User: What shape does this take?
Amino acid sequence: MAALQGKVAIVTGAASGFGAQIARRYVEQGAKVVIADLNGPAGEKAAAELGENAIAVACDVTKAADVSNAVRICVEKFGVPDIVVNNAGTTHRNQPMLDVDEATFDRVYAVNVKSIYHMAHAVVPLMRARKNGVILNVGSVAGIRPRPGLTWYNGSKGAVNMLSKSMAVELAPDNIRVNAICPVMGATALLEHFMGVPDTPENRARFVATIPLGRLCEPDDVAQVAVFLATDGAEYLTGLEVPVDGGRTV
Assistant: This one.
């Protein structure tokens, strides 16, 4: 039987990048998936490619009403979510910390951190009522071993990593497991922002040289971990900060 057969999942930021591959692997493993993404058309396209077990909802994760609406639609279409993956994220361009303007700072924290607050308010009561649930927050190795030039982003991911542990402790009596998946830099739309320089083979090579396994993180590296942590085989794992980083944090 498929590892996630009969499960219902919400994945934010799932129209592209890590989130899209998580949604794809979840559907392959038998789950029904709600793709919640700011880019409505891209979300619809991704859902169409995955077939009848995926639907898309336009969702700005910084807005409580949007998040609540996504959860409501999930319940109406597929049922109460068993799994929520808070994957949506953003960054500021790699630059000196004092050069990042306040609006960008606020946006980074709203998307990366406050979104989890909104989602917790929307899904934890539903999971508590069933005494079961899995919440996966996509943090980052940036919150473990920070790179210069990304100070405010690093701080936001440090918050994600820590609040995942705190949520895990608080929600354990309700049998709700919470873990943080912490990827290293990946070949996604945010790569140039992380590097702060053009995405050329030479510039990539400088960053790849800091990763012992010698390559950037691929979406499937994250998706495979997200599948395992959502399965019953991981039922005794909670409060983990899982680096998916090719050894970067060693």
About this structure: Strands lie at 8-12, 32-37, 54-58, 83-86, 133-138, 176-183, 241-244.
